[in-house]
Amino acid sequence: MKPLLLGLTLAAVVTACATTTSPTGRRQVVGAVPQAQLDQMGAQAFTEAKAKQKLSTDARQNAYVRCVVNDITRELPAGWQTQWEVAVFADSSPNAFALPGGKIGVNTGIFTVAKNQDQLAAVIAHEIGHVVSRHHDERITKQQSTSTLLGIGSAILGSAYGSGAANAAGQLGGAAAQTFYLLPNSRTQESEADVVGQQLAAKAGFDPRQAVNLWQNMIAASSARPPQWLSTHPDPQSRINELGARAGALMPTYEQARAAGHTPKCG
Asked: pLDDT at position 140, please?
């Protein structure tokens, strides 16, 4: 009965989700949360971030970021061409994010590593790549499925061997899932956002080669990193090599965009 219970519950979890294809052709399992709810969650998180963190009052910085965002989002598929809301945070850490519902946050610290509009576009397009690739949906779906299955496994062991076995199984299972399942998925998503973002920036008329320069600047500004297998991001040097290889292939796209009048003049 216990294997049957596990099988039935697994089937229920899978049925509640859906299989789709990402922009790069990768198989995804999504659908644990409806898109409308994801958008609402993104909007709520963005509102909280603006309430808790200091916003930049520098008009030039705000206009600069808004200009880059506008040029990039014009190239999105029709379903994603909403009015993206932008916030620039007075924070020295070089970071940026994008959320479902069309929300983009950029820290002023990003300007220390993104030295020009093409490098800033590489950052912003990468973050938008996460959204249009449905990475938030995919991650929530995987986390929910993993939590459900770990709970079932712990319950089954507990009924057979007692609460000590159940607790140990839950702790070890959670650690294993985080290390070998959820973190590798995050690295996959980061690499995919690189691909989608670099393509998007080139279509908008931003130089795709500048993504390499951006990451060289990031490495120069960063401190020691955790081992690659415990990181949520790909190895920086591997990332640079891949970005450089793709940049060459994207030059015709970039040149066509420029010839068609896509010549960003943001800063």
From this structure: 81
The number of folded domains in the chain is 1
Model confidence pLDDT, tens digit, residues 31-41? 777 888 888 88
For residue 107, CA distances in Å to 87, 228, 257 come to: 9, 25, 28
Q: Mean of the pLDDT values across residues 76-98?
A: 90
Question: Residues 55-88, buried b or exposed e (16+ Cβ, 10 A)?
Answer: bbeeeebbebbbbbbebbbebbeeeeeeebbbbb
Greatest C-alpha distance within the chain? 70
- Nearest Cα to 133, choosing from 76, 50, 211? 76
Pairing of strands 85-89, 103-107: parallel
User: Could you tell me if residue 63 is inside a domain?
Assistant: yes
Nearest-10 crossing angle of helices 163-177, 135-161: 160
Residue positions counted in the chain? 267
Residue closest to 71 by CA, chosen among 256, 196, 197, 201 = 201
- For the annotated catalytic residues, the residue numbers are 127
Nearest to 28 by CA among 150, 178, 133: 133
Distance from C-alpha of 251 to C-alpha of 256, rounded to nearest angstrom:
8
Residue range 247-260, pLDDT digits in tens: 999 999 999 999 99
Residue 265 covered by a domain: no
Domain that holds residue 185: 34-259
Which tens digits make up the pLDDT trace of 128-187? Answer: 999 999 888 888 888 775 554 434 444 433 444 444 434 443 444 444 434 343 444 577
The C-alpha atoms of residue 147 and residue 249 are separated, in whole angstroms, by: 41
How confident is the model at residue 217, as a pLDDT? 92
